[in-house]
Amino acid sequence: MGNSIMTNSMPENRLLELDNVQVQFPMREGLVKAVNGVSYHVNKGEVLGIVGESGSGKSITARAIMRLLPKNAKETGGSIRLRPRTGEEFELSALDRNSRAVRKVRGNHIGMIFQEPMTALSPVHTIGTQIMRTVQLHKGLSKADARARAVELLAKVQMPRPAQLVDAYPHQLSGGMRQRAMIALAISCDPSLLIADEPTTALDVTTEAQIIELLKELKSELGMAIVFITHNFGVVADIADRVSVMYLGRIVETADVDDIFYAPKHPYTQALLRSIPRLGVDQGRRLPTIPGMVPDPFSVPNGCAFNPRCIHAVPGLCDTQVPPELRFGSQMSRCHIAEQFAQTEQQEPAHV
Fold first, then answer.
1. DSSP code for 58
2. Spans in the chain with pLDDT lower than 50
3. Three-class SS of 59-124
4. Chain centroid to CA 352: how far?
């Protein structure tokens, strides 16, 4: 697959860089372009929120980074580059998913928290055993030292009675405790990057708030960066430094978190923000929704993929031409009329 070590360096503060990543799934009905030219970067120590509806390609992009794509997935273009704390630069997209080089990166330099820990954790092994195997593989620890490390990690993620729960099986834990165990496993080798794929979706709001607070504490303590994938703008407002919004396999807007909420420059971002319930608004008022449905992945609309649902769509332009990336300082929008939004600042931010 070629040499994984890069020779042309990324910017000094850059940890992860995706450039025009494309992932397709050949199906009987046609070709699904699940990831259609995604580009984004993550700087050292920052939290990048990835927001979008189900089917937007958020999780497939994350799995491409981890080299955990399904076997029927075809990577047809782009590059994924990583520079962890060690200073090496890896071209992840050139690595075979089963290679030794990938095993060196996965779990060691990049950790991942999955949406549902009950399916991500092995049901036939204790929590401690699963953590121990990871640190023994990557850190070469003895069995006794690995067990001590497992107990230490469970304490770090605020598990009660870590010395006892290290011998518990996943089914013996609550949903919140399982997610804490998943986080302990993901950070067991002090990764430079943590990918959190909707880690709070299956949790109640109280537990969700606790997990978010825990991730913020771990980020500060361990100095790692986080890619936080979610469909919840409220969570993004709480944890992210920058936000990328995805729609049908493309990044349609990227900006600092304040700019996303106070001055969004893509109609899809604006529509998502309008649909957030607001405190103090008349309860009898109908909650705004986005018109139409997410298009069939086998027949993505021409031009801007969002144009059939967009209240600002310009006939003859938005339905014929793919919008370019327009930049406004550190903000990027893929919209033909983003300049108009830049000239008319949003009067009120979304309340989240």
1. H
2. 1-3, 6-7, 346-352
3. HHHHHHHHCCCCCCCEEEEEEEEECCCCCCCEEHHHCCCCCHHHHHHECCCEEEECCCHHHHCCCC
4. 20
Beta strands in the chain (DSSP E): 14-27, 30-43, 47-51, 74-82, 90-91, 110-113, 193-197, 225-230, 242-247, 250-256, 326-328, 331-333
Report the candidate in 177, 61, 164 with the shortest Cα–Cα distance to residue 112: 61
For residue 211, what is the domain's CATH number? Answer: 3.40.50.300
Asked if residue 124 belongs to a domain, the reply is: yes
For 306, phi and psi rounded to 5 degrees?
A: -90, -5
**In-domain check, residue 9:** no
**Of 218, 232, 42, 253, residue with least CA distance to 113:** 218
Please tell me the predicted confidence (pLDDT) of residue 258.
95
Angle between the N-to-C axes of helices 205-222 and 175-186, in degrees from 0 to 180, rounded to the nearest 10: 20
Q: Is residue 313 part of a domain?
A: no
DSSP 5: B
Tell me, yes or no, whether 209 lies in a domain: yes
Identify how many contiguous H helices and E strands the chain contains and give both numbers: 12, 12
What's the pLDDT score for residue 350?
47
Give pTM, 2 decimals: 0.91
Joined together, the tokens standing for residue 338 give: 């983003």
- State how many domains the chain has: 1
- Tell me which residue range forms the domain holding 135: 14-240
